[in-house]
């Protein structure tokens, strides 16, 4: 049955993938954008200008749209400065997502779908973590601000009366227009020999192709039980696996190797954490409860496709 769907963050890398998928299924799609210069070429039935940090204006726009489902795909990670990107994202999760949830409830929406991150899990040994693992709310610096804002937002989404709440915890997003694509930050750092391997570094990364990040939302428009779901591929990868493979496919130099002490002296704290102690996530819950399968089961295939190396 066609639904009325509002997508906030409609011009982001996931939002732009999601909009045409929704329209292909004949849902009525309202794209929520913050700036008027993004009104053109947005594949939606209607485009509405609203700032998720402005609750009053946001509530008015959602009441006019009358949504069945509200989807939050907002992010601050497009900012050039990494700390600024984290501060923006923390503000969006702490205030913007909650405003959007409030407005969705007031507008009579039945479901609310919010974005989370598997990278926010607290490091724990060498485990691959499921949805019951705690978020690292005591993490330092700007990253800690992001995780605490995420944890607070998730609790609001999952406990709000009058609406069914879903949190989709994505892995590291890759694919067209992401930081892994040519011109993106990871691509530039790898090709510029700025992202090294750390000797004995055991950091794990779970990846999510933007095709899967967008496509999985369709599963929750009417199906699935409210709750938290890891949306990742089948193969969490140590940096010693994915980083050299990515460098080869991107046509960059082999990553240099640093000791742990050298890495701490030369790199920012968050990068060292990601390379040495970050944990991967399992997609078991969403596979078993919804029968979901990622379009790109492994980052190996997805990276190859990103660089035109995958057959077909």
UniProtKB/TrEMBL annotation:
<dbReference type="InterPro" id="IPR001509">
    <property type="entry name" value="Epimerase_deHydtase"/>
</dbReference>
<dbReference type="Pfam" id="PF01370">
    <property type="entry name" value="Epimerase"/>
</dbReference>
<feature type="domain" description="NAD-dependent epimerase/dehydratase">
    <location>
        <begin position="5"/>
        <end position="231"/>
    </location>
</feature>
<dbReference type="InterPro" id="IPR036291">
    <property type="entry name" value="NAD(P)-bd_dom_sf"/>
</dbReference>
<dbReference type="InterPro" id="IPR051783">
    <property type="entry name" value="NAD(P)-dependent_oxidoreduct"/>
</dbReference>
<protein>
    <submittedName>
        <fullName>NAD(P)-dependent oxidoreductase</fullName>
    </submittedName>
</protein>
């Amino acid at each position: 049955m066609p639904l009325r769907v509002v997508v906030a963050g409609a011009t982001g890398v996931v939002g732009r993938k999601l909009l045409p998928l929704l329209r292909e299924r004949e849902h009525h799609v309202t794209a929520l954008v913050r700036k008027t210069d993004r009104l053109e070429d947005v594949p939606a039935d209607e485009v509405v200008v609203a700032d998720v940090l402005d609750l009053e204006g946001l509530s008015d726009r959602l009441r006019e749209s009358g949504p069945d489902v509200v989807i939050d795909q907002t992010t601050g990670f497009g900012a050039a400065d990494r700390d600024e990107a984290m501060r923006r994202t923390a503000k969006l999760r702490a205030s913007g997502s909650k405003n959007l949830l409030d407005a969705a409830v007031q507008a009579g929406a039945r479901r609310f779908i919010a974005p989370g991150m598997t990278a926010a899990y607290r490091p724990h040994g060498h485990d691959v973590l499921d949805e019951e693992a705690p978020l690292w709310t005591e993490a330092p610096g700007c990253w800690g601000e992001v995780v605490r804002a995420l944890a607070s937002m998730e609790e609001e989404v999952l406990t709000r009366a009058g609406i069914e709440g879903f949190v989709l915890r994505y892995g590291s997003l890759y694919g067209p227009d992401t930081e892994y694509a040519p011109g993106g930050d990871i691509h530039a750092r790898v090709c510029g020999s700025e992202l090294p391997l750390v000797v004995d570094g055991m950091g794990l990364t779970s990846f999510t192709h933007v095709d899967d990040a967008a496509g999985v939302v369709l599963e929750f428009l009417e199906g699935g039980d409210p709750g938290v779901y890891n949306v990742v591929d089948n193969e969490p990868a140590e940096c010693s696996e994915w980083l050299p493979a990515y460098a080869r496919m991107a046509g960059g130099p082999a990553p240099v190797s640093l000791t742990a002490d050298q890495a701490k002296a030369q790199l920012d704290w968050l990068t060292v954490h990601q390379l040495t102690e970050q944990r991967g996530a399992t997609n078991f819950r969403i596979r078993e409860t919804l029968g979901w399968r990622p379009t790109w089961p492994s980052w190996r295939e997805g990276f190859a496709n990103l660089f035109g190396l995958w057959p077909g």
